[in-house]
Every structure is written in C-alpha cells, then in structure tokens.
Design a protein that fits this description.
single chain; globular; about 425 residues; 3 domains; alpha/beta; seven-stranded parallel sheet
Length: about 425
C-alpha cells in the first residue's frame, strides 16, 4: 500500500468539504485513517482534520491526491512544484496540472504564490524572474515557458459556506425546480442586486434569443434603464432577434403577441442588412434607424456589450467577434471585475461564461431545461442559484421588485 498524510482546514463540516473528501477516497477504492480531528464548537469556528490516505499503487494514490487537492486537501510534506518547459507554442508538457476555478497557490522557491487569474481547464505558467504564476490557455503558452506538472506544490482553497444566513446563494437549494415556488427567491435576488448596486459591484447578463422570442425583452430593458446591467454577453442571434423585433415587430418571423406574423425568415435577414448598411448597432441608434429594443437601450445607457458569432450566423452584423480565440480573450477581460452574473435562456453561452468566472462571482441561471441549469451551476454550488422556469416571468418579476421595492415587501407579507 502507498500512503500520504493530508490535512483539511476551515469550515470543512458545514461546507461539506470533509464528506466530499471521504467520498472521493471511498469511490476510488482507497482507504483512510483519521489521525486527528477538531470540530469548531461555535458557528464561526473553523475545523481541522488530519488523515492518512492509502491506495494500492503509487499511480492510483497520485490521481486520488490530485482530486483531494481540488477540495482543499493539503499534503503534510510541503515541497516545491515541479516545472517542465513547453515543447512548442500552444503545447503544454505532458502531465501538466489542470486547474479548477478555485483559488490556487503554487509553491516554488520555498514560497507560495497565488495563481492569477483563477481559471478552470487551464495550465499554470511560472515566471521565476517576476516570481509570479498565471493560468494559461493553449493559445497563451509559448515554447520554453515553464509549466507546472504533477500535483506537488499545489494548494487549492475552495469556496466555503458563509457563517451568516444572510447570503441568499448559500442557504437555499442550489436548483429550484419547475414545480417549486420562486417568487420569494426572486424578491430576495432583487434585494441582493440593490445591495450590489449600492456597493458599486458589477452585474453582467448573459442573454439568449429566448429573452426576445418570449417577449421578455421589455423587462430586460427595464433593468438596463434602472442601471442594473453593466455588461451584456450574447451571441449574434440575440442581437439580430432584438433588432428584428424593433424594426419589424417579429423575431425570426414570430411575434409573441400574434398567433401569426408576416415576414417569416425574410425579416431576420432584412434586419441584418439594415444594421450592416448602417455600420453597426451604435451607428443605427445614432442615425435613429434603431429607436427601441434591448440593443438600443444598451447603447443609450452605455452598457458594455460583447457579441460573439457562431457557425450558423447569416450575417454576422457589424461588431460581432467571429474569431473564437479572440472572443474568449475579450470575454475573460470583460468578466474580470464582474461580481454577479445572470445566465438567462442560453445553454452554450452560459456554460462558456460560467467556466471563465472567478470562484467568488455569484451566478443565477434561469432556463426551462433542467439539465442546462444543472450544468451551469455545478462548478460553484455555494455561489450559484438555478431556477428551472421560462425567462419571461422571471425577468418580469425581478424588474417589478427592483422598480417597486414595496412590491417585494408586500410579497413577503403574503408568504
């Protein structure tokens, strides 16, 4: 048997860190022996556990320790991280350490350095001269860059549950199913966003075409007008659907207020053509070609809009970033100072953004598809809320709560 001694510190009981570690050990066919455990006696007290973990082979133990580190486990024998040079531009050395989105520290030169930014599915590059460590994607790495390999010298600090019950994101069920009441959660979310605005936090919305097609666009406009949206991330289709609705009253030939609408797919293409002819959305607003809608409101209220293309784009319209790598870089930069994100009615875009967020960013995912909600919130269970519902009633009630605080108070009294 091969063994290592690990330690856990912090709120390891109420944040479920200890149960997760024990579950990983058992499901991987390994064994553990708890040598010492101290459980905090009061709510704010931290706990500590030391245990010996053993496996049949050294390779199996290494793989297990890597998983345990991702839950905050520290190996007692602290050693420097192992480094290897990148063999070519865009290529990591074999056995490179794959990051999570949790706060991570690396040890080299006998000192710990925090990896910045915290970014999942990346490698860690070390600069000895600057004594710094950064998470890098394939397109960021150059030949001979020093990359961390293996798991030695890595320390991960997972987000832990707050000791205060005032945190909406940590003291309700992570996912609110379609048959569960949502009004109380939406009212509390409205209060949370009001606190964020007062504290000068940054709120981002990741929007899907469903917002426009269900008629929820007018409620998103209300949020923008109330200064509750700082950044908007969306695909080209979202913008085109909104422009088409503003110009022709349809989105992909459909109108939520009419059983039948004229124009069909033609209106979609004509909307693209008008924006291209105008020179972009902002120019179309300036020329008064575009006089209403979500994109119009974003321009008027100076919301930072990041639009990315897809293989299905008929246009794209001017201002859409079509290079995937460039789009990732822009999105990471624009997400760097965001504190709260609303993921609304878009599966792929939501998953992309969720993978780029720092571990402290609080997210709300709203989608009619339960599997989409589950995927979007699984990486940050203590920082995320998922609501399985249509985006239209969610945005309508959220906008009502923010526009009229008495509405939220009245709702609480009726509970």
């Amino acid at each position: 048997m091969f063994s290592e001694t690990i330690e856990l510190r912090g709120h390891i009981i109420d944040s479920l860190i200890l149960p997760k570690v024990l579950d990983q050990i058992l499901t991987h066919g390994a064994n553990f022996k708890i040598g010492e455990i101290k459980i905090g006696k009061k709510r704010a007290d931290q706990s500590f556990a030391r245990m010996e973990v053993s496996a049949q082979t050294g390779e199996a133990l290494d793989k297990l320790i890597l998983r345990l580190r991702q839950h905050g486990a520290e190996v007692v024998e602290r050693a420097d991280a192992h480094l290897a040079r990148a063999p070519a531009d865009g290529v990591f050395p074999r056995d490179f350490y794959v990051t999570t989105n949790q706060q991570t520290f690396v040890r080299f030169g006998g000192k710990e350095i925090e990896v910045r930014p915290a970014m999942m599915d990346s490698a860690i590059a070390v600069d000895r001269k600057k004594h710094s460590a950064r998470a890098v994607k394939f397109f960021d790495v150059s030949k001979d860059d020093e990359i961390i390999v293996g798991h030695q010298g890595i320390r991960v600090v997972p987000v832990q549950r707050s000791t205060s019950r005032t945190d909406l994101f940590q003291f309700i069920n992570t996912i609110i199913d379609a048959d569960e009441p949502k009004s109380a959660v939406i009212r509390e979310l409205g209060r949370e966003l009001q606190r964020v605005r007062k504290a000068k936090g940054k709120i981002a919305v990741v929007g899907g075409p469903a917002i426009v097609r269900t008629g929820a666009g007018e409620h998103l406009v209300r949020l923008i007008e109330s200064r509750y949206v700082d950044r908007l991330f969306a695909g080209s289709a979202f913008a085109v659907y909104d422009v088409e609705r503003a110009l022709f009253g349809t989105s992909l030939g459909m109108n939520p207020d009419l059983a039948f609408a004229r124009g069909g797919h033609e209106n979609h293409l004509r909307a693209i053509n008008i924006i291209r002819e105008s020179g972009g959305i902002a120019t179309a607003v300036k020329k008064k070609v575009l006089t209403c809608g979500i994109m119009h409101t974003c321009v008027i209220h100076k919301v930072d809009v990041v639009l990315t293309g897809s293989i299905r784009d008929e246009g794209p319209i001017t201002g859409v970033t079509t290079d995937v790598v460039e789009a990732q870089k822009i999105m990471r930069e624009k997400l760097a100072d965001v504190t709260h994100v609303l993921l609304l009615g878009t599966v792929q875009h939501s998953l992309a953004v969720a993978s780029m967020l720092a571990p402290t960013v609080k997210t709300v995912c709203v989608d009619i598809d339960p599997s989409a909600v589950e995927k979007a919130v699984e990486h940050q269970p203590l920082q995320s809320i998922g609501l399985v519902t249509d985006v239209e009633p969610f945005l309508r009630e959220l906008a009502d709560c923010i526009a009229n605080p008495e509405h939220a108070v009245a709702g609480d009294r009726q509970k």
